[in-house]
Amino acid sequence: MTAFQSVAVIGAGAWGTALATVAARAGRSVTLWARNAEHATRIASTRDNPRLPGVRIAPEIVVTSDLAVAAHAEMLLIATPAQHLRGAVNMLASHITTPVPIIACAKGIEHGTHKFMTDVIAEAAPHAQPAILSGPSFADDVARGLPTAVTLAAKDEVLASGLVQALGSPTFRPYHSTDIRGVEIGGAAKNVLAIAVGIAVGRKLGASAQAALTTRGFAELTRLGRALGARSETLAGLSGLGDLILTCASPQSRNFALGLALGRGEQPSAGKLAEGEFTAPVLIELAASQNIEMPVSEAVASILSGRSTIDAAISGLLTRPFKAEE
Ligand SMILES: NC(=O)C1=CN([C@@H]2O[C@H](COP(=O)(O)OP(=O)(O)OC[C@H]3O[C@@H](n4cnc5c(N)ncnc54)[C@H](OP(=O)(O)O)[C@@H]3O)[C@@H](O)[C@H]2O)C=CC1
Ligand SMILES: O=C(CO)COP(=O)(O)O
């Protein structure tokens, strides 16, 4: 019997809905919280969420917009966009008076503070036990029960392992870790790098360029990770290299798709969350503060901000001085 029988997922977007399904499949009693009361009522009655079309939400999942109901759970998963995670945890904080695990499921770095998601949780809800779940996992695949594997990290290995036991099932396999920072860096940086690779594919630069850019992207992700104390095996694991491979190779990724549209000179789809767009400027600020070179991420940030054209950014990357591979 797991110590975490009840689970609440905060944020009823694509990922929150998929994670609620995962937890229900693992035998937990699940509450899915949506900020909008009308949305919650509609999802509860139709058992369908337009943010994750075609996925039937199991009848036993309670859908609510009442935060007090959700906050009763023995573990909480936060699946809002990264820049809204602090707001969500702030709202939860007054309901949390005992140590309860709060698992960040968003991928990003907070603007202004340069803080990673578990640091934001620790600040906003001092009683919480922050953890992070990240890895190669499209919400649609996960909700449909296709096999996926992710990393779940907490400071305390026993806690991380307990959370894995509560959420894991044959088709959703979390691996536990204590390298919180390594997991957070991989998830945040891979979205920015996926935009770069999408641009290259959209510009028809070829499969060789796609592989080269993904690999050099991994090199800069690793450089930053090492500088911030991440473990190499985490960066080369599911939440780092694993998620980078997934996101840099599939138009199913919203970040890759954003890059693809930009590279083709098309208008990106409106209303689709591509976290890399928000992470790019803060990622390069953070890298600069550590004296870490991240030329691919810098190119993405300068394209997105309009400081550079796509052609100038590509030319800038291709004419960098030759150097040793590291
Ligand atoms: N989709 C995926 O495959 C995966 C996504 N992730 C990560 O999960 C996070 C969420 O992504 P995803 O679910 O796909 O995004 P969606 O755009 O599908 O949904 C975002 C959800 O967050 C809600 N939301 C927005 N702002 C707030 C807020 N201030 N307080 C509470 N809820 C809020 C939105 O509510 P409303 O509906 O009312 O607008 C919406 O339900 C991102 O960081 C993403 O990188 C991670 C792994 C996989
Ligand atoms: O994080 C994801 C897969 O692991 C989802 O990727 P996108 O946000 O690019 O769709």
TrEMBL record:
Catalytic reactions on record = sn-glycerol 3-phosphate + NAD(+) = dihydroxyacetone phosphate + NADH + H(+); sn-glycerol 3-phosphate + NADP(+) = dihydroxyacetone phosphate + NADPH + H(+)
Sorted alphabetically, which PROSITE patterns does this protein's record hold?
A: NAD_G3PDH
Q: In which pathway does it act?
A: Membrane lipid metabolism; glycerophospholipid metabolism
Which residues are noted in the entry as sn-glycerol 3-phosphate-binding? K107, G135, S137, K190, D243, S253, R254, N255
- Give the InterPro entries listed for this entry: 6-PGluconate_DH-like_C_sf (IPR008927), 6PGD_dom2 (IPR013328), G3P_DH_NAD-dep (IPR006168), G3P_DH_NAD-dep_C (IPR006109), G3P_DH_NAD-dep_N (IPR011128), NAD(P)-bd_dom_sf (IPR036291)
Subcellular location(s) per record: Cytoplasm
Protein name as it appears in the record: Glycerol-3-phosphate dehydrogenase [NAD(P)+]
Q: Which residues bind substrate?
A: K107, R254, N255
* Residue ranges constituting the Glycerol-3-phosphate dehydrogenase NAD-dependent C-terminal domain according to the UniProt record: 179-314
Q: What gene makes this protein?
A: gpsA
What is stated as this protein's family in its record?
Answer: Belongs to the NAD-dependent glycerol-3-phosphate dehydrogenase family.
